[in-house]
Amino acid sequence: MTQLQPRLGARDIAVAALMNLLWGMNIIAVKMAVIEIPPLTAALLRQAIVLLVCASWLRIVPGRMRELLGFGVLTGGLYFLVINLSMAVATNVGALAIAGQLGVPFAMLLAVVILKERIHKYRIAGVAMSLAGVGILVFDPEVAREIPGIALTALASLIWAGSSLIQRNLRGVPVLSMYAWVGLLGVAILLPVALVFEPEGVHGIPRLPLHSLGWVAFSAIGSTILGHGSMSWLLQRHPVASVTPLTLASPVLSVVFASLFFHTPLTPLMILGGIIALAGVAIVTIRSARVGEGRA
User: Fold this and answer.
1) Are 100 and 153 in contact (CB under 8 A)?
2) How many C-beta atoms lie closer than 10 Å to residue 256's C-beta?
3) Is 84 in contact with 153 (CB distance < 8 Å)?
4) 282/292 Cα distance (integer angstroms)
């Protein structure tokens, strides 16, 4: 068993930087994918690529199958169905990157409701700040037309939060095995849905140009497999309290990359809401990690 080391070395920092870069750039890949491919079909293709890459790791894990199936249904099927729809209806995806930070406070609230965990004033304040930061976006005239996309992103964040609770019981399961099931169940769910609502998109997959497939492949391999694989690798080497704060750079990069690539406005209210939401997420993330390590 690998002994956990609290201090992060140069290699760990490099892995964390790559992880944040991949997650930050992924917002561009997902948006471009749903511009060039119908959104449900794009989600199906992403999970098909994940399954193809991880297929050799697909195996029955005794005592963990209920959790693996639940994780696969939520993460591979429902989450990507909703998040791709949110990207398809939105223009300013930077606003969606800010709304996507609701996953962390949602996960903590679900832990309180379902697992009866107790929280104290700092994490309560963090949740309130996260919700307030996203709420500020509603009052921005430049973002008001993105309300459907923000609402779908909030729903996707809630689905992600539910899957994160399940993932707690999957420690020790190889990450490639986990994502093999995510890919399999994602395909099983998204294929019939796409065939019903986007039959022309599914039938047109063989005719897709390589650059369109490239956006989907980046999301599947870069964000899902390499990004989450890096996170798993770091957690196997270091305490949760040392690793989780490293993820806070990715939403900042997402907003910046989206603004630069799509030339969408980054308004003062967006910046204010993003700072408040990210500060709240940072409080929840760091305090939750310390609680998980048995510290106050």
Assistant:
1) yes
2) 14
3) no
4) 15
Token pair belonging to 222: 């870069």
142 has pLDDT over 90: no
Q: Check: CB of residue 238 under 8 Å from CB of residue 6.
A: yes
**Residue reference for tokens 């969606």:** 96
pLDDT of residue 296: 45
Q: pTM for the complete prediction? A: 0.87
Length of the chain equals: 296
CA-CA distances (angstroms) from residue 87 to 5, 31, 92, 238? Answer: 39, 6, 9, 34
Q: Distance (Å, rounded) from C-alpha 238 to C-alpha 33? A: 35
**Per-residue model confidence (pLDDT) at position 292:** 56
> Is the distance from CB of 241 to CB of 289 less than 8 angstroms?
yes
Name the residue among 75, 71, 69, 81 with its Cα closest to residue 38. 81
Give me the helix-helix angle, 80-89 and 39-54, nearest 10°: 140
Alpha helices in the chain (DSSP H): 10-36, 39-54, 65-71, 80-89, 93-99, 103-114, 121-137, 147-167, 175-197, 199-203, 210-217, 228-237, 240-243, 249-262, 268-292
